[in-house]
């Protein structure tokens, strides 16, 4: 499947998942919802790989990277995202995820030793200014609430969302390490989701959260959409793009998904951003777009030649 089509599919799906997560909030604890989501997605992927005749076991060298990548991407990142959306409008969480375009090269520098250009630093400074404007009034209100003896839930949500973006970026960079050891995208996704699910399940048990049955058709609709589309199909597209063009460029998706999410939030969550918030969003997204105008890193020849048939089959089945 062509890379531009993979890009579009991932953008359209992930642009709606931030709102879809709100369908699961309320009756079921956030960590438990993450367990349900990725347990279902992992099971679907393992069954699909078995039907294709794939060998389901991975070597220990591949598995150790998969454990770390899965716990970061499908564990820590998502438990923080679900928890953050209890306190923040989904559109604001989505805008913060646009900052992954800066976290990715920074973390790639630490883990893989890739160089950083001046454009990343300059655009990152503008993006930080945009985020400050975006949350200026809300952070001020949260600080005043804390000083008055309140709990400052907005500030907690902001911190959780930032941790989620950093954890996702760590997972994105580690996809390169995983693919060096195991080329099967769907199988490594299945294992990564399984490890992430186990991590979150342990966290839920340790914190005393109850594993209750999904209570409403609304919850089930969100769970099925997030598991099959938001997890299986979108991540298959995204990880294939990382393999082809590198994680720094694959996170271009982060420029588009916040726009889709903000539009949905205005329509479905009655989100009404003020002037400062609008300027902040424009600065944040504009700086991201500027950073992404940098010349593309040349992908490995093997990755360029790989047609990623598994993703194509999944998308045909989904349609």
What does this structure look like?
This protein is an all-alpha fold. It has one domain (3-293). It contains 14 helices and no strands. It has helices spanning 3-21, 30-51, 60-84, 90-97, 100-112, 118-147, 153-181, 185-206, 217-245, 247-250, 253-268, 275-291, 301-305, 309-318. Helix 1 (3-21) packs antiparallel against helix 9 (217-245), helix 1 packs parallel to helix 11 and helix 2 (30-51) runs antiparallel to helix 3 (60-84). The two termini are 15 Å apart. Keywords: Membrane, Transmembrane, Transmembrane helix. Residues 5-135, 156-290 form the EamA domain.
Elements, N to C (H/E): HHHHHHHHHHHHHH
Largest sheet: none
Helix/strand structural class: mainly alpha
Count structural domains: 1
Indicate the overall shape: globular
Helical segment count: 14
Beta-strand residue fraction: under 5%
Task: Give me the count of strands.
Answer: 0
Averaged pLDDT, please? Answer: 79
Level of helix content? over 70%
From the alpha carbons, calculate the radius of gyration and give it in angstroms: 19 Å
- The CA-CA distance between the termini, in Å, is 15 Å
Spans of at least 5 consecutive residues with low confidence: 296-319
């Amino acid at each position: 499947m062509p890379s531009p089509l993979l890009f579009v599919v991932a953008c359209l799906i992930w642009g709606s998942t931030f709102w879809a997560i709100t369908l699961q909030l309320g009756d079921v604890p956030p960590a438990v919802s993450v367990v349900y989501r990725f347990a279902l997605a992992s099971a679907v992927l393992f069954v699909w790989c078995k039907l294709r005749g794939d060998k389901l076991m991975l070597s220990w060298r591949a598995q150790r990277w998969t454990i770390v990548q899965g716990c970061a991407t499908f564990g820590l990142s998502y438990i923080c995202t679900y928890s953050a959306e209890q306190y923040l409008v989904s559109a604001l969480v989505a805008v913060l995820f646009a900052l992954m375009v800066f976290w990715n090269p920074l973390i790639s520098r630490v883990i893989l030793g890739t160089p950083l250009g001046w454009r990343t630093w300059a655009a990152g400074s503008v993006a930080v200014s945009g985020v400050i404007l975006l949350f200026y009034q809300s952070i001020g209100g949260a600080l005043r609430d804390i000083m008055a003896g309140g709990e400052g839930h907005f500030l907690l949500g902001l911190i959780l969302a930032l941790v989620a973006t950093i954890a996702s970026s760590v997972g994105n960079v580690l996809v390169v390490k995983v693919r060096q050891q195991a080329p099967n995208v769907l199988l490594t996704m299945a294992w990564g989701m399984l490890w992430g699910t186990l991590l979150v399940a342990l966290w839920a048990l340790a914190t005393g959260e109850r594993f209750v049955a999904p209570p409403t058709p609304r919850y089930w609709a969100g769970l099925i959409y997030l598991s099959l589309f938001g997890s299986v199909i979108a991540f298959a597209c995204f990880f294939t793009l990382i393999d082809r063009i590198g994680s720094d460029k694959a996170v271009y998706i982060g420029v588009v998904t916040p726009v889709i999410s903000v539009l949905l939030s205005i329509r479905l969550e009655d989100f009404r951003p003020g002037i400062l918030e609008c300027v902040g969003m424009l600065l944040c997204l504009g700086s991201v777009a500027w950073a992404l105008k940098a010349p593309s890193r040349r992908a490995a020849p093997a990755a360029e030649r790989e047609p990623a048939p598994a993703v194509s089959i999944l998308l045909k089945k989904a349609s």
